[in-house]
Design goal:
single chain; six-stranded antiparallel sheet; 6 strands
């Protein structure tokens, strides 16, 4: 094994890392949307969120995710990958794909729930088929409910790149519960 020298952080300009890059993230108070969620069935709530009548959750802005479609038992998101999501070897971090898939399967389950009922992920299994970079273009993720139970729901999701190639899939189990009142 050959040791690779690691320069110190205060090394002179011999390292050309290029200019610093940044991204600004803005969001609205998430308590506004969660308060409205309690009084609406899941599909009505998500349609209001999609139509812009309820503010989007902060995670969407943070991850470059856009909610683009919803129907009974299904949800679709788009995500435009960028370098801020890269892992150390130059690809989009697997956690980005997992977050995207967790979001679409959770929202798909949410569409099946009555007012006053919420959900949370119990487990998610993600399979990665292809590396993703910013060159992959906009990713589209679709979540679908496979079984909507009263206490446990099951859903699956898939992510495709801009050319339609499958890049990741997921299966998930979600706990369904009454939301606390007051």
């Amino acid at each position: 094994m050959t040791d690779v020298p690691v320069p110190s952080p205060d090394a002179p300009d011999s390292l050309d890392w290029g200019p610093t890059r940044s991204r600004t993230v803005e969001w609205h108070d998430p308590s506004v949307s969660s308060a409205r969620a309690a009084g609406l069935d899941g599909l009505t709530f998500l349609r209001a969120l999609l139509d812009g009548r309820i503010p989007s959750p902060p995670i969407g802005a943070l991850m470059n995710m856009d909610f683009i479609a919803v129907g009974k038992g299904t949800a679709t998101f788009a995500l435009t990958p960028d370098e801020s999501q890269y892992n150390p070897i130059g690809g989009v971090h697997g956690g980005t794909m997992c977050t995207l898939l967790d979001s679409v399967v959770g929202c798909a389950v949410h569409t099946t729930l009555p007012a006053g009922v919420g959900y949370t992920s119990v487990e998610i299994k993600v399979s990665f088929m292809k590396a993703v970079t910013k060159a992959s273009g906009t990713l589209t993720a679709v979540g679908k409910v496979t079984k909507a139970g009263r206490r446990i729901a099951f859903a699956e999701g898939e992510v495709r790149d801009a050319l339609g190639a499958l890049v990741a899939t997921a299966t998930s189990t979600l706990l369904v519960f009454e939301l606390p009142t007051g």
